[in-house]
Amino acid sequence: MMSSLPWRLLVGLGVPFVGVVVCLPLVDKVPRYFFGMPAVLDWMFLWFGLTSACLAACWFLHDRTAPDEND
Amino acid sequence: MAVVVFASLLGVSLGLVLLGRRGHAHASLRDYFVASRQFGSVLLFFLSVGESYSIGGLLGFPGGIYAHGVSFAVWFVGYMLMGMPIGYFLNPQVWRAARRYDALTLPDLFVGRFRHRPLELVVTLSAIVFLVPWGAMQFVGLGVALGGLGIGLSGWPLMAATGVLAFVYVALAGVRAPAYVSILKDILMIVAIVLVAVAVLHRVAPHDLAPGMAVVSGASTLTPEQERFAMSTIVFQGLGLFMSPLNMAFLFTARSARAIRRAQVGMPLYLFMFPALALVAMWARVDGPPLASPNDAFIGTARMLLPEPLIGVVAAGAALSGLVVLVGLCLTIGPLVSRNLLTGLSEAGQKRGAQCVTVGYLVFSVSAAILTTSLITRLNNLTYIGVTQFLPGVLAILFARRANPGAIALGILAGDALGCGLFLTATSVWDINVGLIGLVLNAAIAWGGTMLLPGPAPDERPATC
């Protein structure tokens, strides 16, 4: 059986990394304000919820019922 | 009235400490420092996210936006955001290692895996050196916050009273004190931030702040130099978020790896108050009262806009923020000295020794906060540079079968020296976070040393140090 670790790392760590770090210089090129704040700051705030969503996907789709979690 | 509200809420916190002490009055060493690894997801959550709503966050985040604009806010929230998914995957592994080696402190992990006294000393002394200024900074922050709120408490009497209260919490309930009080602290902090943000929104709509903000802090985008610094700092401090000996000690209180993962899921969402803090900072910069210091951005706004009883709520939240971190630091540094620096003490001796260290640490922190504020502030900037250097060693404990303990020790020292040296000499290397440069050197030495001279496998290590 293939390990689930690669997809969990991709979703739980890779996606937030791309969103928060890799996309930063791209979003930063948007010289606009939304809700009174610069676009790049709004983008960071958006990732509060998106990062939790990525971790929740890992938790509910795998880790919550994974046998090695029963410590 | 504010003082009455403030004192009442501190009284409630003391009640929570006494509640946490019930059934644990004569706590064993393991119960005193890591709650016998009994904490579930809720207590662990509030202990772990404590840094998000700390006195540093309350003063430093809005103060940074006030002084530096967007660039500061981006890396400040970015590193906490990046650290949480890293912790989701790494922290359960660290917890399992702590349980396997019966670790109460970060150096215990290294002892359990390597049984190498020089490495234990390097980790212990590094941890102490980089944590010591943090305590003094809590007193500095408390002085700024409570003095700025104008509730009549300031200076050394306030700091001394806070120090006494911190010791009482430590002595009464050990690690259960910051765990229980952090729930009240976070409730008060969130209430305080919401109150001030709502008061600001009554005066101005957020989009009306944008033109003024653009004038006072320049462009809404980052320069290429600021981008490089922000990205490298987010990565570096994100890696270091849970490497702090303080956060490690809290992690060791968990009941299970499952409890840790469950707590980590909601942590990024818990940062939801930072947009409100940013809004307050922007209003303070554009329309707010004149301030003596950027760090007064939130506190000055609160004092201007809130009625007196609610100022007491803000003051209590700020005070408990400092207290929770102080108590955590005492419970971290105490056993570093009594258990890792001094060896051979009985369990009762370690506990008493840690309490003696606590007294000394609090006295030192108050003195340093009063006498050497600017030096302490500068040294505090080194904290993350130092604690993140434990990462290669922790990864080696978890994943490397034949890591060389001597190389790990040398790597930590080299990373500390390079990162701190670059920072203190204000040397910029292409605007990359200097701690990250030190970490790369650290990892290279640890890995290279292990390749040249592999260390003993876990089942081959010596029986004792």
Automatic annotation (TrEMBL), chain B:
Main location: membrane
Topology relative to the membrane: Multi-pass membrane protein
Subcellular localization(s) per the UniProt record: Membrane
Entry GO MF terms: transmembrane transporter activity
Organism listed in the record: Ameyamaea chiangmaiensis
Alphabetical list of PANTHER family matching this protein: MONOCARBOXYLIC ACID PERMEASE, SODIUM/PROLINE SYMPORTER-RELATED
Family: Belongs to the sodium:solute symporter (SSF) (TC 2.A.21) family.
Keywords, comma-separated and alphabetical: Membrane, Transmembrane, Transmembrane helix, Transport
Family annotation (Pfam families): SSF (PF00474)
UniProt name for this protein: Sodium:solute symporter family protein
Annotated PROSITE patterns: NA_SOLUT_SYMP_3 (PS50283)
Phylogenetic placement of the source organism: Bacteria, Pseudomonadati, Pseudomonadota, Alphaproteobacteria, Acetobacterales
Transmembrane regions listed in the UniProt entry: 65-90, 121-149, 155-175, 187-205, 229-253, 265-284, 310-337, 358-376, 382-400, 407-426, 432-453
GO cellular component: plasma membrane
